[in-house]
Amino acid sequence: MNRAPTCAIVGGGLGGLVAYTTLRHGGLEPDEIDVFGVDADPASTFRDRAVAIRQRQMRSESDGHCFATSFPGLAVRAALRRRSVRPLLESVCDRYHPTVEEFLENVGEARARSGWEESFHLGRIDRVRAVDGGFLLDDAGLYPHVLLAPGHPGLAFPPDLEGDPRSVHAYQAHDYADDVAVVGAGMAAATEWLNALEAGARVVSIRRREPARRPLNVERQYFTRRGLAGFHRAGSEERVALLRGFLAPSYPPGEEWDEPLARAVAAGRFRVEPALNGAEQVICATGFCRGFVHDPLVADLVREHGLTTAASWIVLDPDSTVRALTDETRTLSLAGAAGQWAHPAADTLVGMKYAARFFLSRVRQWRTR
Ligand SMILES: Cc1cc2nc3c(=O)[nH]c(=O)nc-3n(C[C@H](O)[C@H](O)[C@H](O)COP(=O)(O)OP(=O)(O)OC[C@H]3O[C@@H](n4cnc5c(N)ncnc54)[C@H](O)[C@@H]3O)c2cc1C
Fold first, then answer.
1. Is pLDDT above 60 for 1?
2. Which residue among 58, 180, 225, 299 is least enclosed by CB atoms within 10 Å?
3. CATH architecture of 7-154+289-367
């Protein structure tokens, strides 16, 4: 039986896939969901960026995957495949990090098993408009429930370096010159220090402040119900300050980072400087453009419907929905980077699941009303 789709997911990346597997696990059929994206492979953006910085291990842990339920996570799967309890023991101590390859296999499996292809439509959505009983997506139709997962709106370059022939963004394909300056001090920068050193380069780390050392991209407490409740209690100004704090650069602690750097310092091949001074190649490990204004679709939605914002964030309810456009007849949810007001780690797989589960529960309430 073919039904008019009730849900649309805009953005066919990992956030879109996580939302899709969650809806499917919750009982929705492929013909009830339309996914709009610019590449049928949900891993394509992630893969290109991970390959560019030669990332081998995920920063996330066992629960960083695209299936709907957190358990069994990637540690259980690795334990079964490797016939070893080691992944499980590491997971208990929060030390298990799947390889990027294992993670990508999981994405492929989730894509194949979920029916993704049956719901996927190739094409960019340019306009979302709230109307009675739902949302119009360009001329694709009316959907009562829409989850936007457009990802980051673009790569950020330091002023004056975009277009400079010496510079490349860390998330763009590149090799290493003999003298490399890496701007930034987060996970991508740290990965690039080691890559360039391994390639035989001399490396200057350009940074304004010392990076924090923490395993996950935000403090672990924000992945717990209690930590999130505290985050949700924070008033607007306090929440903006917290979110700005999370943008400060960080990379994980551990000798796998410290030892090669210490050896390179001793050999005169790695040093820290506050500003650029004429390196042959400049790698901008400076992340993404931040804020809704950089995404034309989301910026237009904010403008057209006068949505509440705070600094560069769209204000969301704790369940990741836009209150002004969500009621018993319709739902608008934001997942991924755009959903940070509801979950500080919205751009992680765990954060994407958080938005997806609330979205599913609203769809279910609507169906049974
Ligand atoms: C190198 C790297 C390593 C990472 N490691 C981890 C990790 O270890 N653990 C973790 O949890 N997270 C990690 N992340 C963060 C996160 O998982 C990724 O950024 C992930 O790709 C985000 O998924 P997304 O769907 O939000 O965005 P994307 O993967 O960028 O997908 C969004 C898609 O939507 C499309 N789109 C945008 N606008 C529209 C529109 N208007 N219409 C149709 N399509 C549209 C985009 O073109 C894109 O294809 C990592 C990120 C990077 C870059």
1. no
2. 225
3. 3-Layer(bba) Sandwich (3.50)
